[in-house]
## 1
Amino acid sequence: MNIKSFALSEIGPFDDITFNFDDRVNVFVGENNTGKSCALVCLGEVCVYPFGMPGKFFRADRKAKFKIGFGHGKRRGRPMYSGDLPIKMDIGTSGFKELHRYTSLLKELGYTAFVPALRWGTEFRATGPTTAAQKAKLEEKNSG
């Protein structure tokens, strides 16, 4: 799916700006410190969550917002998604609603699945191939 527009507000040097994209090639050009990197990082945050946004882009009130629009060939309408930056998906009552909304956005981008990475620690890392004896020893350790 092609991104047709990307709007940002209250982030970096932008009070309110909308980028309209071509179907083929888009290039960000400008003087130093005009917001090229900021715009691309924000786009990365929306399209590749979690991208990791530097704090230097945010203003003191941290009320940054985005709006992204898609083009559809034969489908009617032009879906538009909007939200706060950085994207937050806390697991909880509101977190699942936000996760569902965000997965809808990713489907518009062409993703077929979204599996958020949850990392609870490093103790689960494999140390190499597991033999039957090692597996039995691990199961014994975990059951006790």
## 2
Amino acid sequence: MRPRVLALYLPQFHPFPENDEWWGKGFTEWRSVARAKPLYRGHYQPHIPADLGFYDLRVPEVREQQAQLAREAGIEGFCYWHYWFGNGKRLMERIFDEVLASGQPDFPFCLGWANHSWYAKNWNSADTKGKDRLLVAQTYPGQEDFRNHYQLVRKAFSDKRYVKVDNKPFFMVYEPSSVPADFYALWNKWAKEDGFDGVYFVGNCPYDKNSDDVCSQYGLSAVLKNRIQELSSIRNELFLPRQWNKLKKTWLGFLNLTCEKFHYRSAMRYLVDEIDDSKENVIPYLLPNFDHSPRSGRFGYILQGATPDLFYEHCRQVFKVVSEKQNPLVMLRSWNEWGEGNYIEPDLKYGRGFIDALANALSELN
């Protein structure tokens, strides 16, 4: 079957009061993106947007242009990051609320609950433990809050554009183990009362967790394996002898040159697992690129050397693995995480290269 590619979508690129308070009037992550500097010879920074420019997501025309580019890439829908911190506290809700209320763009969507606390990271400290500043705490007040959360989200579930799997609305949970167990049971119950066959809960989880155990433990339908975490654990095998890695942690750490960098070409084979990702309850990620240095500077995590040609090969690998599935879902990480150097929107270096790479890999399956 043809893969169903969903793309994680960050609704961040517009000013909102909390950002003004924390980082200064008018702040968006475009400020960090534009200020990024190369950390070593050949390091591609800054990443500058091309076709869409430094956009403001409050502008409906921008959202229409994004949807059109996503259609051309072969993406089925956007998975908007959704923030509910408990007791009705939300952040960055304006963009999706406008998409839902206006009916535009006429492009499928689903939600991914980013259920984690927000911190102001102290990247410049050698020991950040306990020193990061809490901005907003993620809480789980109980059944009444679960009901209020569901009442909000059910408006989206009922929209004709909402992505469903077997009459179950797709709903991703970033930290499934943090959510009380009765949350999943109650949402499934309420969804069935609304005429669905439950909720298609998808949990983000570490690459080394058994998907069957995770799904049964939390009542999930499927898991997303966060394989980018695996690169750190196999660092020595990939690039560095153990002695050099030890030296890097000591002397280079003292010199504040501690960014973790991996070659995309070498890392590709660790980003997909032919056996694990072929399971019905595992959804693989497509990872076009990654460079966290705009946010974290010399403490960044970097996949270097990512190109549209290599991403095309990565797409082919993933699509081959899911081709025999009943529900061949694939999650693109990400559509527009510019602050993490993790996007396929056009930039000045590669233009539409990553969009065309995905489209070409999908077109071969027709």
